[in-house]
Amino acid sequence: MITLSDGTNTLELHPDLFWSDEDNWHPVAQAVQRTITGALDIQVAAMNKGRRITLEPEDDSTAWMSSAIVQQLRNLAAVPGQQMVLTLRGESRTVIFRHQDGGFEAKPVVHYRDRVPGDWYLCVIRLMEI
Fold first, then answer.
1. E strands within the chain?
2. What is the reported pTM?
3. pLDDT at 115 over 90
4. Helix, strand, coil: what percent of the chain each, to 5?
């Protein structure tokens, strides 16, 4: 089960969403530059915040979400700096939307001229651990 909570409301997200950038986390930050004398200056530190968590469907036939969930995600994403708790695989993480990367996207599985409550969507949820 995957849930996202703002402390008041808890959304149950589709369990087939997958963490697409899970294995792209590098827990060490490194900055390298040359000094005016030509020497190499290397700074290294452990990264303890900022891990990217992108939840998305594997393909267009999985992880469809209802229009009600999409509306709730939109409402969460509309609050600047909204901190939430993401529970994924039994582990909880404090997260915010990565608005600099688009934050949240939803596209209808089938496009209809008028939206109705029974519409289904494919969503990409871009979060960052804080």
1. 2-5, 10-13, 18-19, 28-34, 40-46, 52-56, 65-66, 84-88, 91-97, 104-108, 120-129
2. 0.86
3. no
4. 15, 45, 40
